[in-house]
Amino acid sequence: MNDRHASLRNLDLGPGKEFDLVRTLLTEWGNSAQRIGDDAAVLDVPPGERLVVTTDTSVEGVHFKREWLNHFEIGYRATAAALSDLAAMGARPLGVVIALTLPEVDRSEARALATGIREGAAAVLCPIIGGDLSAGKTLSLTITALGSVARPLSRAGAKPGDRVYVTGSLGGPQAALRSWQSGQQPTEEARARFACPVPRIDAGMALAAQGATSAIDISDGLAADVAHVAAASKVRLEIDVEKIPAIPGISPVEALSSGEEYEIVVTAPHIDVKQFTQEFGLLLTEIGRVVAGAPGVQILQHGDPIGTPSGFDHFREK
Fold first, then answer.
1. How many of the other CB atoms lie within 10 Å of CB of 296?
2. Tens-place pLDDT, residues 113-128
3. N or C: which end of the chain has fewer CB within 10 A?
């Protein structure tokens, strides 16, 4: 084994039930886990790039219900959600750190959780570099994702004259939730969009390279999230609702409020959407424009203003 591979190898762990569980996770992660066993992870950031760090928490009863998802999907989805924040910054993943609270009832599913985490990270070639394991009453995963980029995208860069673009088709998570809440099973497409979202890492880096001025991933709903761009950039965004790409069975108006999409909204002077879609096999749609004016979002339907739906807010009073 050369020095580089030796430096990536996990350390041997001492005795104890907690470390037996960690060994179970490490066995499932295999070569996806690197340098685990010390008190902290050590990362190398490529020369000329900056470190990007984000943390995302997925809690049972808030972000998922075990009646809806299996443990593989719970692990995959939590990992993808954190990595999506790196995509919105145009960053390349360097590693993820997992803090897992594992109730007694879920310990037999630790391997399935580990597999989901591994596959979520492997989908974007991201290693698992550390974490923490705790007992508790509620299953939760807190994923810290670390990446690097020379010029991070921000919510604060949109300028009047820019156009607004979104990746993918929206509405899948909302359709899945609607089905579950009515006691039905969602379509295969809607369930996949909720259970196994795809972090748009390659798309984020490509859009940054093509002149994106700002970006955000859709976690609380398109209308709510572009409002953050408007506030940070001190501009007004006009969104043409009829242009919003939605999955079958969901109207563009409904897609405005569909959360946990993990698609990316970007602003840019101009991007060739046809060329981008062909090159990356990912739909890119122009849905609006950035204009001068009081910061905010105006939703237009065939040129006429309509009400703006609210997004998801953990702390909104019921």
1. 14
2. 999 999 999 999 999 9
3. C
